Amino acid sequence: xxxxxxxxxxxxxxxxxxxxxxxxxxxxxxxxxxxxxxxxxxxxxxxxxxxxxxxxxxxxxxxxxxxxxxxxxxxxxxxxxxxxxxxxxxxxxxxxxxxxxxxxxxxxxxxxxxxxxxxxxxxxxxxxxxxxxxxxxxxxxxxxxxxxxxxxxxxxxxxxxxxxxxxxxxxxxxxxxxxxxxxxxxxxxxxxxxxxxxxxxxxxxxxxxxxxxxxxxxxxxxxxxxxxxxxxxxxxxxx
Amino acid sequence: xxxxxxxxxxxxxxxxxxxxxxxxxxxxxxxxxxxxxxxxxxxxxxxxxxxxxxxxxxxxxxxxxxxxxxxxxxxxxxxxxxxxxxxxxxxxxxxxxxxxxxxxxxxxxxxxxxxxxxxxxxxxxxxxxxxxxxxxxxxxxxxxxxxxxxxxxxxxxxxxxxxxxxxxxxxxxxxxxxxxxxxxxx
Lengths: 239, 186
Hints:
The structure holds two protein chains of two kinds. Chain A contains one helix and twelve strands. Chain A has one helix spanning about 195-200, and strands at about 35, 75-85, 95-100, 125-130, 135-140, 145-150, 155, 160-165, 175-180, 205, 220, 225. Helix content of chain A is about 5%, strand content about 25%. In chain A, a hairpin with an 8-residue loop joins strand 8 and strand 9 (about 175-180). The radius of gyration of chain A is 19 Å and the shape is globular. By secondary structure, chain B is an all-beta fold. Helices cover about 0% and strands about 30% of the residues of chain B. Chain B is built from one helix and ten strands, in the order E-E-E-E-E-E-H-E-E-E-E. Chain B has one helix at about 145, and strands at about 35-45, 55-60, 85-90, 95-100, 115-120, 130-135, 155-160, 170, 175, 185. In chain B, strands 1, 2, 3, 4, 5, 6, 7, 8 and 9 form a nine-stranded mixed beta sheet that branches. Chain B is globular and about 40 Å long. In chain B, about 50% of the residues are buried. The chains are: A mainly beta, B mainly beta. At the A-B interface, strand 1, strand 3, strand 4, strand 9 and helix 1 of A face strand 5, strand 6 and strand 10 of B.
């Protein structure tokens, strides 16, 4: 049997810790005992495989996939990006799922009690596959900021949630995309749970004029990087 | 070193997209193997059940093959079994997640059957990985199981609560606390 390619695994210097005091919900929901290291075996180096059969026609257009009686309200945007591993290699044919609040900062969810209007034509969910070059694209409405109960006058910066499957279970990532120039990022304990500025910057999309479609929608670019392959152990190199 | 995109919490509203399609039942027409039910709660540091958690599982088929190109035996894998499931805890009164699946076989580089488990929740900035081992297997033959301190091994063992035609296992996940589930760092 061919030795399995090993992966870099999660880089704990890039990711937030489980416990981040300013984000109050972490207090009772953060593992406190040391993680147990395990060898990367077949079980970690495999993962669910998704394909076109898993998608429905309007899954990548949130401005159209929940229309009841008209267009959703708000600023139409196009989000594009690449899914890469941490050696910069594109990851093709990977499933990405997105969800978000509407333009007013209200989620289409029974537990969201924010006093802002629901949009009957916007549910805020989508799914897509990366193409042969690891690229993805979807159309949506720019989400609004919204208040939450973490502390007095707490507001989440506008964001889109991303759930990413790479090609194995090690590459699984759930994250959030933020928008450039949002003053709420500096005040947000979830965003600032990320321990360093480089990491935080990686979650801020950039305005992409090349993607912006004249007379129609603004473009944003958001690349996503997950762990990638490293040297294969057990192989002897020629001297 | 790397430029990995940092993880962020799944938040309380992931149901809008992540659990809109039914993914709690991994069994399709034609799936081989012994059907089982797995359910349990996800508990916080005060041992309170979490009502907005999401659990994902990834498992081999009844013969221990993963339906994935890295498995050298993928061609032998059950074509009627993807091996991926996802469930949440909001819809049950007691905040249980539930999976209908089959008991996996032993994977070629392992010694006993198990299921890979990931847990996500509001308040978790990064998801956590664990494994579900079965109480009715010889888990002491597993190197990974044996690498867990003995006093914590029970946290990764699903108990057989109903041994009927479709056996039911219970697997509670303690995110934090004295009985904190063992989480792995592969």
